[in-house]
Amino acid sequence: MSDNLLKNIYTAEEFEKNATKLFKMIKNHLQNTTTGKADRTLNWNEPDKELNFWKVFLENGKNEDFFTEILKRSTHTHHPKYVGHQVSASAPITILTAMVSALLNNGMAVYEMGMSPSAIEKVVTDSICEKIGYTSDFGGFLTSGGTLANLTALLSARKAKVSHNVWTEGYLEPLGIMVCEQAHYCIDRAAKIMGLGEKGIIKVPSQESFAMDIKKLEVSYNEARAKGIKIFAIVGSAPSTATGAYDDLLAIADFAKDKNLWFHVDGAHGGAAIYSEKYKHLLNGIAQSDSVVIDGHKMMLMPTITTALLFKNKVHAQHTFSQRADYLLHDTEEEDWINSGKKTFECTKTMMCMHWYILLKFYGEEVFDEFVTRQYDLAKDFENTLQTDPNFELATSPMSNILCFRYTDSYQNDERLNQLNTSIRQELLEEGEFYLVQTKLRNIHYLRTSLMNPFTTVDHLNLLVNRIKEKAELLLNKN
Ligand SMILES: Cc1ncc(COP(=O)(O)O)c(C=O)c1O
């Protein structure tokens, strides 16, 4: 091994050589994708072929081709024909904050390992708490994703609402969490990780619109109580993932108050609507919650992965994990905003707060208002297009920027249509011009679009409709 290798890889010249080239490529990528000039959102490749490519590339590929290949072989969220999963087209300025986080690598578990990001994180989370409508004692932190944040919130709920100390004594009685059957699967997973078992996750039925059926709350609660389950928390989805339907948070807040439950809002996707003058009414009742999750990498234009977990009362954030790590943390009853690792699952985390701060600083809250409002409006326009076309059927009217629909025909045979819509989606995936996804709701297969890209217009969506029809006709003629 060469003695000079380590020295060489750290030279500023080596960095500059690679960075200059990459910055040009990023600029071209942004230009080609955001304008829709690139003719595809992804270049589909079978998994085995892709695996083989990277095995061979490690041995034989040219180093200078690495970034070119990565850009070519990935899904382009910045393309207006990207209407797939709920991941943002990251605002270009946050590409730079991601880079600075990688450079400084301050792990943030304790204040000394992230002085400015610890302070920045408090500025950011306090401002989100105020926007939610929390008053006086609020507080929160950033963590790695909605899944982890929801689990953390439910652990805080257990600590706050269960009379014995589960952390030290284990479970002395069966406990449970209530949530709509349509909620993101991470809530179910959180309950299982917490050891509550199948009976510990009480799924409240959904109504026609796929939002929680509030009329069933009392029945679901009583059934669980009759089985001896002590319910300590209820989760409202804002919105749920598959259809983008917002639960009635006001009604859930009242129910939680009546039964003395922790009220958690999973706003991973649409919590960002607190910034939208036009759509913030969807979150009425959020100010009465005990905790809220909002993903920065979904509707807030940030790179993966950054999530805010906000608490009405910061004491609960402080007490979730009572574990001691004497070399890092000192036990204190006082507010300890400076030592992030006490409150988060992570010991080390990225300096994700910079993405939130820089967007607020450079562009203000208006950027979130403009983005959320535009995307939710666009879904309404798309709904109008689909409603006037007899070949399409909507699962439900969209409440957010998520819209589920299917191609249909005069036979209306669900089994046949399930097969047809699955095949249409596969054909579109392999063609790569548009990227959309699919979901199964009440045994019906739907095509699913999340309108995540700020450059997607009705014209793009009309083109998508035409492509779907072309594929459907080809497939129907084949059979
Ligand atoms: C409502 C909701 N909650 C939680 C999650 C999980 O968030 P993450 O992917 O950041 O872990 C998602 C992801 O789509 C979601 O839509």
TrEMBL record:
Does Iron-sulfur count among this protein's keywords? Answer: no
Q: Name one GO molecular function term.
A: transaminase activity
Family the entry assigns: Belongs to the group II decarboxylase family.
According to its UniProt entry, this protein's organism is Croceitalea rosinachiae
What keyword terms does UniProt attach to this protein? Aminotransferase, Decarboxylase, Lyase, Pyridoxal phosphate, Transferase
* InterPro entries named in the record: Aromatic_deC (IPR010977), PyrdxlP-dep_de-COase (IPR002129), PyrdxlP-dep_Trfase (IPR015424), PyrdxlP-dep_Trfase_major (IPR015421)
Q: Say yes or no: keyword Lyase present.
A: yes
Q: What is the protein name given in its UniProt record?
A: Aminotransferase class I/II-fold pyridoxal phosphate-dependent enzyme
This protein's cofactor list reads: pyridoxal 5'-phosphate
